[in-house]
Amino acid sequence: MLIQRVLRWASGLLLLAAIAAWGAYAAIGSEVGADGVLREPFALIPLGWLCLIAGFVLGVVCFVRGLVGHVMQIRSIDSRTNG
C-alpha cells in the first residue's frame, strides 16, 4: 500500500514539474541578443517532456498495480466462498 501511495505522489509531482517547466519556459521567453544570438531556456523543453512521460509511466504502473491487486483480492474472496 505504501508503494502505491509513493507512486501516486511521484506521478503527480512529475506531471506538475512538467507543467512548471513549460510555464517557466513561456514566462522567461526567448530573445535575440544584440550580437544576433538566440537566448532562451531551451533545457526546459526536454525537461518538461521527460517529466511528463515519466509521470504518465508511473501513473500507468500505479493503475495497473492497483487493478491487479483488486482482481487478486476478488479472486481470493471468490475462492474462499466457493470452496
- Give the distance, in angstroms, between the N- and C-terminal Cα atoms: 28 Å
- Summarize the amount of helix as a percent range: over 70%
* Shape category: rod-shaped
| Rg of Cα set | 21 Å
Tell me about the largest β-sheet.
Answer: 2 strands, antiparallel
What is the helix tally?
A: 2
The quaternary state of the protein chains shown equals: single chain
Overall average residue pLDDT: 91
* Percent of residues in β-strands: under 5%
What topology, given as strand order, has the largest sheet? 1-2
Specify the structural class: mainly alpha
Which sequence of SSEs, written as H and E, runs from N to C? HEEH
The parts where pLDDT drops under 50 for at least 5 residues are none
Number of strands: 2
Could you name the key traits of this structure?
single chain; 83 residues; mainly alpha; 2 helices
SSE map:
Layout: H1 2-28, E1 31-32, E2 38-39, H2 44-82
Antiparallel strand pairs: 1-2
Describe the structure.
The protein has helices at 2-28, 44-82; strands at residues 31-32, 38-39. The protein starts with a helix and ends with a helix. Strands 1-2 form a two-stranded antiparallel sheet. It is rod-shaped, with a radius of gyration of 21 Å. By secondary structure, the protein is mainly alpha-helical. 80% of the residues lie in helices and 5% in strands. The chain has 2 helices and 2 strands.
